[in-house]
Amino acid sequence: MFNTLEPQQPDALLAVMAAYAADTNPDKVDLGVGVYRNSAGVTPVMTAVRKAEQRLLDGQLTKAYVGAGGNRAFAAFIEELTLGVNHPARAAGRVVTLQTPGGCGGVRLAADLIHRASHGARVLVSEPTWPNHRPLVTGAGLVVDAYPYYDPATGTLGFDEMLDALARLPAGHVVLLQASCHNPTGQDLTPAQWLTLADVLERQQLLPLLDLAYQGLGDGLDADAAPVRLLAARLPEVLIAVSCSKNFGLYRERVGAVIAVARDTVQAGLVMNHLQILARRMYSMPPDHGAAIVASIAADPVLKAEWLVELEAMRVRVGTIRSGLAAALRGEFGSGRFDFIEGQRGMFSLLGLPPAAVAALASEHHVYIAGDSRINVAGLPETRIERVARAIRAVCR
Questions:
Q1: Which pTM value belongs to this model?
Q2: d(Cα 197, Cα 212) in Å, to the nearest integer?
């Protein structure tokens, strides 16, 4: 059977990770993989997470299944964190939440639900978008198109072009939107632009699928979730994929959720029923360990406060690195060519470098970034900012 398999292109980012691991230069810099690192270059276990995990290990009495819907205390907290305590859709009983294996699991389950509900629906993603969006959606049997979003050459958002493209879509199509900290560009819509976009989505009867992977690392927990809350209040149906990888540092635990906002309580129950069936057929039951850690933090005011302080420190540090890198590049280039880095949000920025420059960064300067010239700002130690700026200048000569 296996002799029918054809070679596939390896994941580009995994190839970057492998090249970095094979590099023996002690001064190498990894700005490819999308994980937060502290000033020592380590992705830390958050203090609140460590304490909650220890409590879990000491007190957990069973490893029995949690059910297809997942840890319900976790689901309730994520729903509250995403939509807020008093959101009208929650008050009306229109919201259901199912725990998933990471944010990827949330996107994929949402795509499966869309495919089951409407075989003719197309999903539009931003150009550019996170590379795994397309395979996650097409893996569910859906067709993916793109809408204009960002020009890497100028470092600017093409909002008018985006609106024009969405305004031409027929009713029932799906628009995948990143709520904050856009990956790979770091360029988010302004609050006023989100209001305008909500008008278009409502008028065209389009279904938003919101990817909320970095809540708390942009402008703060509430500000980063504001677009989600806006659309959930304005529109009859919304899907949201949530990840705890970044804001809880639970990358390897695969902790996430899919949230559905339905037209009414009856439809909400039906959606939850179908999500559970889809989950059961795909992976049966979600893992509980990471979700139980999050639920434990949510239930303890002291741990929750500790987590909030640490998350805010991470957010502020990423902003400081952005400012430092923009200033260093300004000094190297003698211009504001890369000033957009400072004004963007979250872990990533897209430098707009050609492939040859990206390759030269690795081969000549031992600085590893994604092939599309995306850099993980959150992976840059403060002590390496000047060195990375010099390397970028060198490959742009």
A1: 0.95
A2: 17
Where exactly are the structural domains of the chain? 11-44+313-395, 65-299
Tell me the residue type at 293.
I
Q: Which two tokens stand for residue 171?
A: 């009713």
When pLDDT is cut at 50, 70 and 90, the band that residue 195 belongs to is very high
Q: Rounded to the nearest 10 degrees, how much is the dihedral formed by the CA atoms of 79, 35, 319, 370?
A: -120
Q: How confident is the model at residue 154 (pLDDT cuts 50, 70, 90)?
A: confident
Taking the CA atoms of residue 67, residue 229, residue 87 and residue 260 in that order, the dihedral angle to the nearest 10 degrees is -30
Quote the tokens at residue 34. Answer: 């999308």
Span 205-216, average pLDDT? 98
69 burial level (CB within 10 Å; 0-12, 13-18, 19+): middle
Length of the chain in terms of residues written: 397
Residue 237 CB neighbours (<10 A): 18
Is residue 128 helix, strand or coil? Answer: coil
Q: Is the pLDDT of residue 14 over 90?
A: no
Domains 11-44+313-395 and 65-299 share a fold: no
CA–CA gap between residue 356 and residue 197 (Å, rounded): 37
Q: Please, what is the Cα angle at 350 between 209 and 345, to 5 degrees?
A: 60
- The domain over range 11-44+313-395 is classified in CATH as 3.90.1150.10: yes
* Gap between the Cα atoms of 304 and 152, Å rounded: 38
Rounded Cα gap, residues 210 and 195, in angstroms: 15
* Higher pLDDT among residues 118 and 12, named by residue: 118
Token pair for residue 17? 């990770």
Q: How far apart are CA 213 and CA 218, in angstroms?
A: 11
| DSSP tag of 311 | H
- Annotated catalytic residues are 130, 211, 213, 246
Per the DSSP assignment, residues forming a β-bridge with 156 are: 151
Residue 166 has pLDDT above 90, yes or no: yes
Q: Is 3.40.50.10860 the CATH classification of the domain at 65-299?
A: no
Whether cis (ω within 30° of 0) applies to the bond prior to 152 is no
Please calculate the CA angle 241-242-245 and round it to the nearest 5 degrees. 135
Give the CB-side neighbour count of residue 163, counting CA atoms within 13 A.
Answer: 14
**What does residue 24 show for φ and ψ, rounded to 5 degrees?**
-95, 0
